Amino acid sequence: MKKQKAIVVFSGGQDSTTCLFWALQQFGEVEAVTFDYGQKHRLEIDCAKNITQQLGVKHHILDISLLNQLAASALTREDIDIEEGQDGGLPSTFVPGRNLLFFSFAGVLASQVGAKHIVTGVCETDFSGYPDCRDQFVKSFNVTLNLAMDEPFVLHTPLMWLDKAQAWALADELDAFDFVREQTLTCYNGIMADGCGECPACKLRQNGLQSYLATKAGQEA
Ligand SMILES: [Zn+2]
User: Fold this and answer.
1) CATH architecture of the domain formed by 5-220
2) For the chain, what are the domain ranges?
3) Ligand 1: centre distance to CA 20 (Å)
């Protein structure tokens, strides 16, 4: 795949940054796309810009503010608090159809720039109940996209079956551990690197990190 081109769906968070490093290793040419949907934390977009600049990756920022107009969530509205889902319900950070829209736009962009591959950091292991992070959705969408565009796109999900500790291990394998730890933004409260430590995204990230570091220390001992 060294001669082929890939588009990475890129938020500037831990997962998509790990995917960006993965793509740079796999493909001859890589571009990244970030969607601006009126995120509460504008720092997310700055983070994404900063990372692509450092890695010398062409960066597309697409305005899809209609997502905010369509669907309110804790990621886009100041007046909605971040809450974990109760009784199996979805958390307040859920944006319905977000990946459906992201992947559709990424598909159109891929066609425009001549990329056959689309890489995304979605993951079924820690998917918080978001239905459009599931493997079955991605596979089904891949078929739909190819029919819609009449092109043989391949969607890649390198993190699909990894838990957060394994995602850190992958970043480490790609020689990107420190970079991912220091330069990315996962926190729902908009704090870079290790984050606020309190929100669900930080807790997930921290638990994974601690578990990975503990395993690594065990192996080295
Ligand atoms: Zn946080």
Assistant:
1) 3-Layer(aba) Sandwich (3.40)
2) 5-220
3) 22
- Torsion, Cα of 206, 212, 218, 221 (10° steps): -90
Q: Cα separation of 77 and 195, whole Å?
A: 20
Ligand 1 centroid from CA 157, angstroms: 24
Residue 200 CA to ligand 1 centre (angstroms): 7
Please check if 104 is assigned to a binding site.
no
The residue with greater pLDDT, 97 or 59, is 59
Residue 137 Cα, ligand 1 centroid: separation in angstroms? 28
pLDDT in tens, 145-198: 999 999 999 999 999 999 999 999 999 999 999 999 999 999 988 899 999 999
Ligand 1 center to residue 205 CA distance, Å?
9
CA dihedral 212, 213, 216, 221 (to 10 degrees): -150
